[in-house]
Write a structure and sequence with these properties.
Blueprint lengths: L5 E2 L3 E5 L5 H7 L2 H8 L5 H17 L3 E8 L4 E9 L11 E8 L8 H15 L4 E6 L4 H9 L3 E7 L5 E8 L2
Parallel strand pairs: 5-6
Antiparallel strand pairs: 1-2, 2-3, 3-4, 4-5, 6-8, 7-8
GO molecular function, one term: protein-N-terminal-alanine acetyltransferase activity
Organism: Phytomonospora endophytica
Keywords: Transferase
């Protein structure tokens, strides 16, 4: 099956792959560690993670990691995951969780919002009926992206791992 590539002319989503390892590693900063990964990466760790992502794409596993690319000669600007299942059964049938992070030089330009719109189209094409963004209440940037892309606040939830997250939802066509 061909790997999906989605674009709006400026932002492109395509599967995260081995060629992205060094740029992904170089893009990590304190903000990405705080909101997404929970710990500093090593280049070998990033390569291992991307290898896992490649296998997940090959299997069409429920967790699919996209590279967020920008420009005519697309530069890696961050990542966006579409998750049709989570480790704890907290998603309802038909929901897809979106998790995204951009590298510092790309933040504040509307790129995350454009990537989320593309990811919603992808999730709908895969049968999802609702997209979910789960954001830490102390992360106003993530909440702002949710609001700008048509998501509405649903609830604040303490998840099974103890993490407190605001849930934003958007019905998909």
């Amino acid at each position: 099956m061909p790997e999906p590539t989605l674009t709006d002319g400026l932002v492109t989503l395509s599967p995260l792959g081995p060629a992205d390892a060094e740029a992904h590693f170089a893009g990590e900063d304190d903000e990405l560690v705080r909101w997404l990964s929970g710990g500093r990466s090593t280049l070998d760790g990033v390569r291992d993670y991307i290898g896992l992502c490649v296998r997940r794409w090959a299997e069409l596993a429920p967790h699919r990691a996209f590279a967020v690319r920008v420009g005519a000669e697309p530069v890696l600007a961050g990542t966006l995951d579409v998750q049709f299942e989570l480790p704890h059964p907290i998603l309802a049938p038909g929901q897809a969780n979106l998790a995204y992070g951009l590298y510092p030089r790309w933040r504040g330009r509307g790129i995350a919002a454009r990537a989320v719109v593309l990811a919603c189209a992808y999730a709908a094409g895969e049968g999802a009926t609702q997209a979910v963004i789960r954001a830490d209440p102390d992360n106003p940037r993530s909440s702002a992206v949710a609001h700008r892309t048509g998501f509405t606040f649903q609830r604040r939830l303490v998840e099974p791992d103890g993490e407190r997250l605001d849930w934003f939802v958007r019905d998909l066509p």
